[in-house]
Structures are given as C-alpha cells and as structure tokens.
Known about the structure:
A: 192 residues; alpha/beta; seven-stranded mixed beta sheet; 8 helices; 7 strands; 33% helix; 18% strand; globular; B: 459 residues; five-stranded parallel beta sheet; four-stranded parallel beta sheet; 18 strands; 17% strand; binds iron/sulfur cluster
Amino acid sequence: MEAINRIDSTIVPVLNDNIDTDQIIPARFLKQTSRDGFGENLFRDWRFDDLGNQRDDFSLNQDRYKGRVLLAGDNFGCGSSREHAAWALYDYGFRAVISTSFADIFKNNALNNGLLPIEISEELHQKLKQSVLADPNTTVEINLEEQVVTCIEITEKFEINSFKKSCLIKGQDEFGFLVELRNEIESFEDER
Amino acid sequence: MGRTLFDKIWDRHLIKSLDRSADVLYIDKHFIHEVTSPQAFSQLNDNGLKVFRPESTIATVDHNIPTLNQHLPIKEALSRKQVNTLIENCNEHNINLYGIGHPNQGIVHVIGPELGITQPGMTIVCGDSHTSTHGAFGNIAFGIGTSQVAQVLATQALIISRPKTMRIAINGVLKKGVSAKDLILYVIARLGTGGCTGHFVEYAGSAVESMSMEERMTVCNMSIEMGARGGIVAADQKTFEYLKGREFVPKGDDWKKKCHEWSMLKSDQNANFDKELLLDAGEISPMITYGTSPDTGIAIDQVIPEKTERNEKSLTYMGFEGGEPMVNKNIDYVFIGSCTNSRIEDLRAAARIIKGRKKSNSVEVWIVPGSQKVLKQAHQEGLIEVFAQAGIRMREPGCSACLAMNEDKIPKGSLCISTSNRNFEGRQGEGARTILASPLSAAAAAITGKVSDPRQFIN
Ligand code: SF4
C-alpha cells in the first residue's frame, strides 16, 4: 500500500445521503477475480444511461468537477460489504471521501485500501457543499498526521482509528502485521 | 458494573489489544463464497502463504449460481469462472466446500445454522454483510471486506476496533399476520439506515424470546440495514433444541456440557449498553417499503409520506407519489427467497396463503429456497406441490434475485415485491423497483397481483 500523509485537491460532489455500495459498484460488475479495473464501472448506473451514454447531469461526467476527493452525503457506503466499492473509488482516482458519516464496513474497507474516509461536522459539510457547487475550484487539504481537514478557510479536526492511521502513514498493511503474529495466535489457541 | 453478552464473548476471543482502537480478535468460524473470496486467496498466494486453519473455514456457492437446472454447467462465463476459482482455491487450501448439487449447499447464512456450524459463544465472520444472521444463536457474527477475508484465511484472526453496544428490547406480542420481518422493518424505519452505526445490537425482550430460531435469524439478518455491526440474541432452550443433533454440534456428554456453558452466556442484569431502545411488538402492523432504502417501511395500510427533499429521489425512482396508498399497486414480480426469508418457516408461511389458490396471471413468481436441505424438506412437506398447483415452480437454492448477479434479474422498470433485505436502486436488476415485505405479504401479492394486506387471507 502507498503511504499517505497529505491530500490537496479539488472536490467532486455526489451529495445524496445513504449512497449504498450497490450504487458505487453494481453487483453485475463483481464477477472479476482480481482487484483491478473496477473504476470503469464506478457509479455505473448514475454515470451512464441504458444505452451506455454519459448522463450529463451527473457530476463525475461534468468537466468542471475534477479531483481526488469525493464529497458525499451522510451515511456513505451503506449496504453490502463488497470491498469492490473501495477498489472502484480508488481505481477511479479518488484518495479520500468526505461525508458526515460512513457505514462501518465501508469505512474499514476504505482504510484497508488507502482511501481516506473523512468525517466532518454537519456545519462544515453544509458550507463546503455550497462552496463546491458555487465554485468547482474549491480545494480541500487533508493532513493525516495532524488529523485536520482545511477548506474554505476553516480547519477542523477529524477522527481516525489510530492503528489504521499509523499503517496508512507508513504505507504498511495490516495483513503483514497479522501474519507476523501467527505464533502468538497459536499460543492463544493452545491456552483456550 | 455488569457486562453485556457481547462483551463476554468478545473478551474470550481477544488475543490482545494493540491500542485503544485496535484489538486482535480470534475468529472461530469463517464462511466464504465465490464473490468476495478470490482476491483474498490471491493475496495469500502472492505472499506464499497457506490457509492457517483450513478446518475453520467453510465454503459454499450461492451469490452467482443459476437457480434453474443446476445440474448443467453454468452458462455465463464470468460466473462459471468465479465458481471454478473457488473450487480450485478450496482444493489447494484443503477447505471444505459445499458446491452446486451438494446436499449441504445453500445461501451461506442459511447453511451455517442448519448444519450446526453456527453455535453460541463463537466469533463468526464472512465476506458478506448479512453475516449478522448467525447472531441469532448467541454469537458475535459480522460481515467483513475481502482484505479481512485474507487476514482470517492467513491467521484466523482480525485487527478490529471494538464496537459500542446497544440493546433493543421488544416486549409484547405480535399481532396476527405480523411476522419477524415486519418487526425488523419497523425497527429499521424507526432508527434509519445509519441509526446503529458503530454499535453491536442485542435483541431482547419477551417478543424476541417467544420467536422461533428462524424468526430470530430474520431479525438479526437485517441489523446491517440500520448500520449495526451485528445483531445478537442470547441463546436459550429454543437455541439448544434447534441445534441438537445437527451435523456439526457436539454429541453425547459434550453436548450437555456445551448447553450448560452456553446457557450462562447472557448479559448481566446490570449490564451497561451505550444505547437502548424499548419497543412494543403490539404496535406493529404488516410492513412494506415505498422507497429505495430499507428504512422506508410503513404499515401496509398507510399512505406513502408526502414528498420531501429527502425522499424525492427515491419516490421518483419508484414512480410513486406522496400521499397515495401502497395497497392495490400492481405488481409484476414476486420474489420469495434470500438469507432473510428463504427457510422452511418462510415457505410454510407463503404456502399458508397460496394453498388452494391460483397465482395471478399478471405476476411472475419466483420462490427460491435457501438451501438444498430447505428444498428437500419443502418437498417432504408437500409445499412444492402446493406451489405447483397454484402455478408456481420452486427453483433451486441460491441468492438469486436478492442481488441479481445470476440470470434472475427483475427487468427494468418492473415492480417486485420481495422478501429480501435491500430495495436499493437496481439491486434486483438494472432499473428494477423493489418493495420489501414479509413472506405472507409477498404470497398475498402472488395471488392478487397487487400489493395486498395478507391479513385478509388468514383467519
Ligand atoms: S441472499 Fe442476498 S443478502 Fe443474503 S447473502 Fe445472498 S446476496 Fe447477500
């Protein structure tokens, strides 16, 4: 996993509340046996119509919105546990999603793949949303080490699981860490 | 301070805490299926690792497989490849696989309990959000992502943050024609899809105690629809009776010892929950959803709420207007199945309404049993015959139109009343519109071709 510390980017808004993982990546695109290429079908049915034409009213298709940060509505990533949702967002080029809250499994999947789920206050979310809609050049800066997000001249602290944070900064994944613990796990089994 | 049932089980499985935010938790049982496991096996293979405890992982195929003519090769190339990849991975890593046609095959959350693999006091995971279903047996069961599937395969453990706890106590008696599905749809409508985020929910109270194990599974199953990390019901006599004699439970003296141990697993009287909710089962009516989120349930005889900024997108997608009744809306498809409602009691409930009646000509009805065992039992009880006489053919076990990864897709624009758990846009097929309901309500719609109050068919 790539180490992350700072993200400085313009923002793409997809502002609905409760965006579920079926919207992020519909089930019919889960048939791949590798982790690659899911970005192509990110938000598939919101991006394209039945004939495969781009829907102009969707922000990902609008030239004015570009960037590595997605601004989403409340309870982002609810529904299915499919990690493909995090893979699709990452593969498309996103490195962070900003919302007022995330579904637990999605949050965990995102963190395990170097995609930052950043929770901000409702107040800041409102302001940021208005700013992005009025001015697509609005930028946001995320500083993981300091756990702060800065935008529209406001700086806010965000919460992040401290263990995940240290993994992300070092670019280390949990998998390797756990495998190192196999002996301890074995002793735990013996003592039960 | 007393401890919750959840805390007791968690602490018994805690290998160590890395810091305040991360525990290393031992996992007793791990279920896998064809869709969320291939990338996890690749990760092991890339690292030159073998599965650490192959006997603790159980595999089946369910998400992607056809539900007609399962004896024939899978037509769709990518689905076939996923199933074959699972077979290869299980062979290579010595994992027990219940493949297509195996008498133990079925939806992963149906077969775990049915085989007695799911037991009280355990930690259970699966790369599937509805793993919460298993919690009905007094264990900690939750869904995980594929990276975590790899962790469990490689180490039988997970790095995970400890959730908060919540208790939902439901007392009183469910009214006639009101089922466990209605109860959980009611709870979800009360709490919203993010209402339990970060929490593990214990269901308690007399209404839950008087439920059968299958009903408790239906309730725990949909915990995720309100954002909960999982759901749990303390094991009791009913749990033991359900499990007794099943293939993977201990036998003889070991069984008695286990039951004794399990009967101790309860939240203490003075246990402290981070959140509590108290509900009266008597308030609940048959429920039905009108929108594209599982928290849009209303009593079947109510009207759809007025349009607001929040529900506008949902109503537009469904083609419904605020203020209109749900009852009498024409239905195109009826789907009775999924890990929420595809067990024998669900089929019996449907048969209770369908028996002696004919399916409406205007609807297509798919009844998909949760497992081979359910299918066999339905056959023995004559339910297949009851459905056949109504003009409905029972299909073979799998997830089917719950997520429409196989051929069982609801066509664009069609309206489907479904006993599954999600009514998201396109969940049952591109452009498909889904109404969530109980098996009784779905069966009533199969007869009338319209959204119908099931109570009119029950005396
Ligand atoms: S039946 Fe539906 S919800 Fe259940 S495991 Fe299968 S796809 Fe998931």
